[in-house]
Amino acid sequence: MSLFRDDGIVLRTQKLGEADRIITLLTRGHGRVRAVARGVRRTKSKFGARLEPFSHVDVQFYARGSELVGRGLPLCTQSETIAAYGGGIVTDYARYTAGTAMLETAERFTDHEGEPAVQQYLLLVGGLRTLARGEHAPHLVLDAFLLRSLAVNGYAPSFDSCARCGLPGPNRFFSVASGGVICGDCRVPGSVVPSSEAIGLLSALLTGDWETADACEARHAREGSGLVTAYLHWHLERGLRSLRYVEQ
Fold this sequence. Notes:
Layout: E1 2-16, E2 20-27, E3 31-37, H1 46-50, E4 55-63, E5 75-84, H2 93-108, H3 118-133, H4 138-152, E6 173-175, E7 180-182, H5 196-207, H6 210-214, H7 218-236
Antiparallel strand pairs: 1-2, 1-4, 2-3, 4-5, 6-7
Pfam families: RecO_C (PF02565), RecO_N (PF11967)
Family: Belongs to the RecO family.
Keywords: DNA damage, DNA recombination, DNA repair
């Protein structure tokens, strides 16, 4: 029997029995972890209130064996709140749907339990903090998170040089399958011709240029979101259920 301590973001919860839950977290040191939290569905459980989606928590686990992720699910025995991001997210529909899509994306990009994914974890913490504070439009925060998640997992799209031959930009065509913008000579079937403003917005979101992103017109933001969604679905090989509810 071993004790483990880590901090993480609660991604989702599932009912177990009459009073328990299975908690899925993205942790700093152990990647994605599923654990059983006993008694948290009882109305007087303060422990359960800390283990809700969007919560940033310091958690203690009790596992059978020397590894946290093993044959059975570990027990979540203690939890202390680091930041309750849910309070600034769940009361606003746009923030809530964007945040839910972020949680689902983080879970999809960490499909092997117990494998550290520090960059993805830090991206999620920063994204939820920004979303909860209302510093930028929720759909822009979401698109920035999706683009950066793709980048840290090795799928960074190109928004300047041709993704196929490297021809310096600007290049006017965009191909999901090719990895971003492409030149006329490399154009493939299925390529689209997005506006330069939409490409500029996506580049700004990827690099953190919020001054440019915040000044973008709504029509270009919607166009950019469509490109991000298509690119994400291509690399995940199936869509995110939560994206259909996101306001643009």
